[in-house]
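Predict structure. Chain length: 59.
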Amino acid sequence: MKKFLAPMLAATMISSAAFAGGPVVVEEEPIVEAAEPRSGWIVPVVVGLVLICAVACND
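Prediction complete.
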């Protein structure tokens, strides 16, 4: 009886130690992306107006 009970007891103790911490829940953090700037069209328009003015005001 002891030869049968000892391995069963050892197996029970090992398996309970494996689950001792409980479940581990891993949550991924959301990816935060930078918003596209609203003034993306201002620079080309200003450069275009400067070029048009330079051509129109040329002597």
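Summary: The mean pLDDT is 77.
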